[in-house]
Amino acid sequence: MRASKLVCTIGPASVDRVAELVAAGMDVARLNFSHGTDAGHRRVAAAVLDAAADEGRTVAILADLPGPKVRLGELAGGSITLRTGGRFLLRSDAGPTDRSVASTNHPGLGADLREGDRLLLADGEVELLVARSGEPVDTEVIRGGTVRSGAGVSIPAERLSLPAITERDRQALEVALGFGADLIAQSFVRSAADVAALRALVGHRRALLVAKIETRAAVDDFDAILAEADAVMVARGDLGVAMPFEEIPLAQKGMIARAVARGRPIIVATQMLESMTSHPRPTRAEASDVATAVLDGADAVMLSAESAIGRFPIEAATAAARIASYAEARGGPYETRFDRERDAPLTHEHRDASGEEDTAWALATAAADLADRHPDVSALVVYTASGRSAELVASARPRKPIYAFSHDAVVVRRLALRRGVTPLAMDEPADIDSCMDSMASRLATMGAVPAGSSLAVIAASPIGHGPANFLRVHRMPG
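RE: above sequence
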């Protein structure tokens, strides 16, 4: 069973193939609000939930907000090819375009730029040099290439005057929360205060916040962002523009290690299998990239263009799942690669004032050790009302699979991002004995655990009240 999770971006190439993506192993469907319509996103979200129900799987929905990113407007013919050495004008309004001028979505573009600034389009495919700021911005094409409508324009983040949460973000957030998105990804986070501001907008609604690390400022403030967010994403496209490319691999490894140590889910994204946008097989380097993220401990890898606009979206999802499964099976005990001790106390961000969660953490680590050391224990089983007990068990990084049961459908879907966790819905049990019987019966019916094996079971007693305080070894019928 694959422990690491697969996030797939739904786009024109896959909007009518959602069921195939679910069958191929998609755990989280990403809806990119930088593109598409509100009605289209609602339809895709409904299609994802229907396909997951038909397949008997849990798939979460991640709504990715546009963020304060400068983008090109609609281009004549949908795309243009810029020639090295040519001139190209960028306007701050949404007026007409041709082969030598494009509009943008940023009214203050000319004021934010300085002569000599380097601009990158479409995650660095095209490079421009600002010859004259103001309106319009006059640039020289240093490295040519083809860009599409809506392509990103990367400018120095420290001078970007756009607010952390734009009006478009606010509108997208309400749409996403309206159809029940489980995770909200915040683009171009620059500080923990940006995440706190989005959390205030979400209010009492239950979506988890994923901070996208794609600016130098976010890398510098990573620990504070990690403490504020519910999960993080290493978004290497724009991050590779904000930082020298040779720095990205070690920055990624460091962020994965720190997220795992904090018990925060972390997604590695962008260009994982980029060649599969046009080819049916990944390159060797891409296979290594996916495997490395898995072996380093990432909770999930994400497909972007590969599944959104590529020619082979299902093949890309299948390839990512195959690479991750093989890396987990043959890669050895990955938790020994982390600077992390299971007996380390929880950091203050994880603890409540009463200290009750200390007991839950102790039980989670004890269950993980029991499962790893005892040859008869085939899986860990958690009943959780809030999801927290399952999150703690996942944070302990056991080698054995984790089956997390809850009567709350929102909790079940939110756990779909957690490495090693298979979330399952069940009716709310009356007591601990009926809970044990129901969970064991469900696993037996699924064929998930061998007959006669044992389960390490964690729950709260009374059932569903408070943090976990109960650990039992339960033997399955032989």
